[in-house]
């Protein structure tokens, strides 16, 4: 079976293709890139100013105990953890960790130790950088929605805990003017509704947009639901300090369930979700709006999209 990640993720992610899909032309990437192809990890905010990166810890590596650094246990010794908090549970025997969603203040970005930190690659504060580690499959979702991402463990009894990291939402990393141009061309070149891939990260001092339509990872296969089982959490790490969108489960999930998040709540902002919810009842949207087929009892009727595009 085809691995949709082309070997770029730690484990293969099977694709069951049941109709000619536009994703055949998608170039798989594991972290976001700028439209010119440069990885966002190569971005430096203030190259001219000499300044210490506040998000690099000064932990000392301990031989033979790669995962002991930067865990909750050592929070007093790690600058990343003590400065920004650690909301990941310590790894279990299988090195699984979850995000403690209930303890995390709304809109607080997570700050992970970075590849520039001296701690080990398996440091317990580097969860979302380690790639997609869940048993997943991409296949046809319910009618009219296209493909979706499904939880596919070997045992039908497996339960995926709440707070599990699913994947980043990786794609081309766009400024607002770039995203506006992209959105307009996608509307012209596609059927109504097909172009709803751009995720807007609206943070207090910055707005970024991620478009995985042409270059992206499996995050692009999460469909919208008005009653979703996943959420988007902003995570930062590394010298670039740019916000990544990380997808976590917001409840436990069973074998065969399809992952979804609320497209209106992408940046973790309840305010934005409420605004879009109000707007979603208007049909004067120039044909940009798509009927929502999430079939939840909470369904708001229309799929949300960023009105500023
Ligand atoms: C980010 S993509 C999700 C993956 C997509 N299903 C695919 O096959 O590539 C968003 C697109 O999926 C479809 N979609 C996702 N959620 C939907 C929903 N709740 N109702 C209707 N269409 C949906 C729409 O065509 C939308 O433009």
Explain how this protein is built.
- About 2% of the residues have low confidence.
- The chain has a single domain, classed as SET domain (Beta-clip-like).
- The chain starts with 26 loop residues before the first strand and ends in a 30-residue tail after the last helix.
- Helix content is 10%, strand content 18%.
- With 309 residues, the chain is mainly β.
- It is built from three helices and 15 strands.
- Bound molecules: S-adenosylmethionine.
- The site of S-adenosylmethionine (SAM) has 20 residues, from strand 4 and strand 11.
Write the CATH architecture name: Beta Complex
**What kind of oligomer do you see?**
single chain
State the fourth-level CATH superfamily.
SET domain
- As a percent range, the share of strand residues is 15-25%
Subcellular location: Chromosome
Protein name: SET domain-containing protein
GO molecular function, one term: zinc ion binding
Main location: nucleus
Indicate the topology.
Elements: E1 27-28, H1 79-84, E2 110-111, E3 136-140, E4 147-151, E5 159-160, E6 165-168, E7 172-174, H2 176-189, E8 199-203, E9 206-211, E10 215-216, E11 223-224, E12 230-236, E13 244-249, E14 253-254, E15 260-261, H3 270-279
Parallel strand pairs: 1-10, 2-12, 11-15
Antiparallel strand pairs: 3-4, 5-14, 6-13, 7-9, 8-9, 12-13
The protein binds S-adenosylmethionine.
The site of S-adenosylmethionine has 20 residues, from strand 4 and strand 11.
